[in-house]
Amino acid sequence: MDPKVQVPDAVLERFRKITAATAYSGVWRLRPSESAEWFASATWQRCLMHDVWPQTPGRRIVGRARTLRYLPPRPDLLEITRQGADSAEYRAMGRCGPGDVLVIEAHSADPYACAMGNMKTRQLWHNQAEGIVSDAAIRDLDLVAEYGLGVFAKQRSPAGNLPFIEGYEENEPINCGGVLVMPGDVIIADDDGVVVVPAQHAEKVIDWIEEQEAAEAWVTQLIDEERVPPGKYYPISEETKQRFRESQQAREDFTR
Amino acid sequence: MDPKVQVPDAVLERFRKITAATAYSGVWRLRPSESAEWFASATWQRCLMHDVWPQTPGRRIVGRARTLRYLPPRPDLLEITRQGADSAEYRAMGRCGPGDVLVIEAHSADPYACAMGNMKTRQLWHNQAEGIVSDAAIRDLDLVAEYGLGVFAKQRSPAGNLPFIEGYEENEPINCGGVLVMPGDVIIADDDGVVVVPAQHAEKVIDWIEEQEAAEAWVTQLIDEERVPPGKYYPISEETKQRFRESQQAREDFTR
Amino acid sequence: MDPKVQVPDAVLERFRKITAATAYSGVWRLRPSESAEWFASATWQRCLMHDVWPQTPGRRIVGRARTLRYLPPRPDLLEITRQGADSAEYRAMGRCGPGDVLVIEAHSADPYACAMGNMKTRQLWHNQAEGIVSDAAIRDLDLVAEYGLGVFAKQRSPAGNLPFIEGYEENEPINCGGVLVMPGDVIIADDDGVVVVPAQHAEKVIDWIEEQEAAEAWVTQLIDEERVPPGKYYPISEETKQRFRESQQAREDFTR
Amino acid sequence: MDPKVQVPDAVLERFRKITAATAYSGVWRLRPSESAEWFASATWQRCLMHDVWPQTPGRRIVGRARTLRYLPPRPDLLEITRQGADSAEYRAMGRCGPGDVLVIEAHSADPYACAMGNMKTRQLWHNQAEGIVSDAAIRDLDLVAEYGLGVFAKQRSPAGNLPFIEGYEENEPINCGGVLVMPGDVIIADDDGVVVVPAQHAEKVIDWIEEQEAAEAWVTQLIDEERVPPGKYYPISEETKQRFRESQQAREDFTR
Amino acid sequence: MDPKVQVPDAVLERFRKITAATAYSGVWRLRPSESAEWFASATWQRCLMHDVWPQTPGRRIVGRARTLRYLPPRPDLLEITRQGADSAEYRAMGRCGPGDVLVIEAHSADPYACAMGNMKTRQLWHNQAEGIVSDAAIRDLDLVAEYGLGVFAKQRSPAGNLPFIEGYEENEPINCGGVLVMPGDVIIADDDGVVVVPAQHAEKVIDWIEEQEAAEAWVTQLIDEERVPPGKYYPISEETKQRFRESQQAREDFTR
Amino acid sequence: MDPKVQVPDAVLERFRKITAATAYSGVWRLRPSESAEWFASATWQRCLMHDVWPQTPGRRIVGRARTLRYLPPRPDLLEITRQGADSAEYRAMGRCGPGDVLVIEAHSADPYACAMGNMKTRQLWHNQAEGIVSDAAIRDLDLVAEYGLGVFAKQRSPAGNLPFIEGYEENEPINCGGVLVMPGDVIIADDDGVVVVPAQHAEKVIDWIEEQEAAEAWVTQLIDEERVPPGKYYPISEETKQRFRESQQAREDFTR
């Protein structure tokens, strides 16, 4: 499945300036279409991965998702999957260049199973990829981190992928950490967690976030000056946001 | 993916006479091919589902697997999946007739999400299917059980599938309960658990089981007669099994 | 906190004819008010208790919630709580008569802690209460069940409440199984799970359910007659529901 | 380690008339010796097994503990353990006769590992043992239950003991369900749970219980007659118990 | 509920010199009153929070507890709780000044729910509070840590409080991490964990600790000098402590 | 049980140059003997501890296992275990010198129970032991780490061993983290995890590892030079390894 929308680097750059927490808020507020009966339709709010943790603390990653799905191995499955350099896991990594993140659904019954270690991920280093997000464990982290990759995974482990999981297909929609990841979606991950932004809404989300961040900074200043409980201005109501917009306008008018 | 092997009803009938525990032993002993380096290859032993429990106690099911996979929902995913009677979940149930079991990978982040309840599964009743095996919860169990279906699932719940999971694709290999299920594999499930027998080895497995069960009955008789600890004859060694075969031969010669 | 709305017995009687699964759907579709920014407001959908399981299988209970909250014990807390017959737990049970359910937030760190056993719950039998819903374990279940109470709890256990939990306050809002329970809310619980219906919306919910159940029965008949995948008519669209309403009207006109 | 005290059948018979919940209370109140600094010494209160559940519901067992411990297997361990009829697991079962319970510490990393199934436990049936208490899973439960054994275990499973656990030593102190079990301790288990009574205190415990049960019956009658909250008389204070004793004495005097 | 005892800053200062581990031992040894039947009364030993972890490693906090309790949200609950600057969460933070710790019972069903992030906690920075202890997740930790607050919480997360939890009441007894926290109790937390010291016993506890620490230092010296297993002198018996006291007395006599 | 094989320091030194991940692979590929029926025998593959985590990050330890087992305490157990300097825990630490690791099976029902803190482990510092591996929590970690010990444990905690666990026996086979540990086995642990190498195979394992590491370095160079997906040469086939050996031989011939 080819991404419907190829998120441009310029949009990724704007996401690099914000946190995963802010990205979460930006996606959370996306309103579903009104066409369906509201309670029978899906929302965009399921965007935060569960049980996928930062393994390279202090490292934030932003990039387009390239997906890979594993299955429990069996001799007859390996006859399908073992295609050397043309195996699904290498094809998936082959799609990853700068600004791309490999996202893995391992769905492993054993939490110590590792999708990858330093040997396989060398391909991501060759390609200057952004990082790895995986619901499985990560092996050889000290070496993988040297490749400059940001790594988010279930945990660390010295185990391999066999006899637990085997790379099966790539570039299809997956479930990673309980979140739908479509090829091309924007991943933004930091020490707070991993958030998925649907590709077709990425620009709308970052537009809203940039205004919201400015509004929060403005409100914070009010709170500090007045020494009031933040609850006076936060959460930011439509009315307060309007006041903020007017103040921005006034400043712009003034500085023009 | 079409099943490579269509397991005939006659083989299913033979499986109906044994327990899931015995099926487990039969699959467990399948030796992987010698061609690969032994430690780098997969085995057949990962055949027991984890966290999938009997919901219709006392009911044993045996059948060919028809597979269905869910993903976390999102408005853009529903545009793909919502095809009325032609949706993946109805197509999957359309493949299920007598001797067939619907096997579901929901991979739900919420354990209370139900793939199905009494409305959808009515199709399985129309088709006289054998049962349902699901890593999600089951809704309306009292009604579903009236359809004569054997149900194995994570738990009971009154919730629906939205906003947790959405049927996405069918008739492909899945991971249910940590076990690979290929379309056409044999499912044998009872109050002890759910076991998957690879279709292409089903006959070999039941051949071994039938001899093993006879040998265990013969050994049990020895143990009872001699009033010895079962450890004297159990686990059954190759030597003891040879003695059993000779005794069988002798009996056959005698009764001929 | 006194219940804002006292749900009348007549409404409870209507709930007795439906399942927890249907009640869940009825609450789930309640739309929050439009006044707030949609993403910053709460919904009514958090209505299904987690980790509270049927202990008297086959028994459905329907009733008004009477609430009780426990805290971890300490000698100075017991000086407050130990008031003999006037202790919070006995006052809470004193509020329970026919059509009332005692709902307990124990929030116990130890899953084997029991809020109550057969000695204390005798008061509920005296008062002919409907049952108990508790996030703690239940002790002496065989005896408690003889009182005719429906019991939903975390698990069974032979332990007491000390040194784990101690009854502290009653008739206030609580968190049971991750769900808000206001005094007076309607509890409907069966083998599928425990659902909380906000008191002020109970009548609206049962109105919708009764029509929905009739529509589902009508749709099921269509599915059976046409032998089509349920997906043709299910989930029931607004359009199908309109057809159902017309058919009902036609039947009423005819039978008049 | 030989039991210091051999609990006589007559004491077991008295335990057969009470519940695990009452046994728990009886052990819970045993006071540790005053000689040690009170906070640096152990108590008798850790007597309730965790994560060991009734598998033969409705069946209560009472008996002397015969202990067995498993270890994770390895080829060099099997050279020690595999002694046919003289293996630890068979020696342990050889110690079990009427009024004896096999208690197993498997400490398995895999919850589906079974210590035993129908083949091995046949020895317990030969010996007319009371039952099995195990922190591992149980295999072939339908067959094992036919042997008349009461079974308490982690869960059901169709798996075997290999490659998860291997019987290693018997008749030594073990940790089953987080509780110390010394050979000879009294096990009392029913649908509420599994309680361990130290052998040397078994008689003292049952003495207290029998009086407590009579006192509770007497108090229940008061509560019923006066229609008061049980909190008026429960928990039973020393003062109330004194009143009870006097009433018993009076009745005895009267009936003499 | 106003604190019965206001622990003075001087006592807090003494606690700042010890570890949470030592505080745990000091509370653990508090003997309950002798008045109640010993097994029916509570102890002071339940003082260590479970599943509340250091989020600002290396940071120790000591302070008086100011409490806050959350409930699952619902539209009708928000009508009660949403009072702007006068909401429970802001009132609770308003009570926190230097030497005070905000302690939160969120009791969240979702482990990713955050009670607070950088916007709300700005009030604690204004007030120069000591830190936050919460059984929920923490959002925007990098920013919150810049406020100089020590943070102990379930985990990190980018999510908000809605739709999971909502601040409901403050300054009342709560259950945080399975431990009773009364307003005014002393919190001492470091990388080992979070310990609660009942306010009315804080001075008695620190008195004992200071002597115990001196005794341990004295014993450690003995162990080092004699190169013996610590078991010779540890745990410190009453007799050894007496020897220590005499040696202290001797030293004081000498240096006088 | 005395170690069958005393692994010499020279072999330990070779293990110090590799990672736990590589040690895992080296043990994993050990083939069990062919004598037994393959499916009824044990393998060497169960060598990775579960739920035992690095507490001194960045610290790798390598050493011979000295074992210690705990049991749940009870007053009568303490009469056996409390032998001052001759208690099992001190005897176990007495066996630990340079190149030795204390390995603990606590099997604690409470995850906050600590086997040891800074007082007891001072003996390991006296003896210049390598470190501690424990399935229980560790207390006073900041102090213990100062002793230069590498620590791998379930978690940190300020609690003591009582009333949860009590040291019972030492120098016997144990189950730590789901892995069999025989006295004398080689422990290799780093931030990836804890791996157990059977003493009698330690030399064979390190021989294989050293060649494998050289082969991986050689293959990595190929991958880097050819800029191909690692799958072209990895996992390393027998054929590729043969090419590697020839290239090594060629180099040796050349440099001779």
Question: How does this structure look, described?
Answer:
- Six copies of one chain form a homohexamer.
- Chain A is built from eight helices and twelve strands.
- In chain A, helix 2 crosses helix 7 (202-226).
- In chain A, strand 9 and strand 10 (179-181) form a beta hairpin.
- Helices cover 34% and strands 21% of the residues of chain A.
- Chain A has helices at residues 9-15, 20-28, 75-81, 88-94, 118-126, 141-146, 202-226, 238-255; strands at residues 53-54, 61-71, 100-105, 114-116, 131-134, 137-138, 150-153, 166-170, 174-176, 179-181, 186-190, 193-197.
- In chain A, strands 1, 2, 3, 5, 7, 8, 11 and 12 form an eight-stranded mixed sheet that branches. Chain A has a two-stranded parallel sheet with strand order 4-6.
- Chain A is of the alpha/beta class and 256 residues long.
- The radius of gyration of chain A is 21 Å and the shape is elongated.
- The A-B interface holds A 32-33, 36, 40-46, 50, 71-78, 105, 107-110, 162-163, 166, 168, 173-175, 177-180, 182, 198, 200 and B 32-33, 36, 40-46, 50, 71-78, 105, 107-110, 162-163, 166, 168, 173-175, 177-180, 182, 198, 200.
Task: Count interface residues per chain for the largest interface.
Answer: A-B, 38 and 38 residues
Supply the number of helical segments of chain A. Answer: 8
DSSP helix fraction of chain A: 25-40%
How would you classify the quaternary structure? homohexamer
Total E-strand runs of chain A:
12
Mean pLDDT reading of chain A? 94
Rg of Cα set of chain A:
21 Å
Q: What can be said about this structure in brief?
A:
The structure is a homohexamer of 256-residue chains. With 256 residues, chain A is α/β, with parallel strands linked by helices. Helix content of chain A is 34%, strand content 21%.
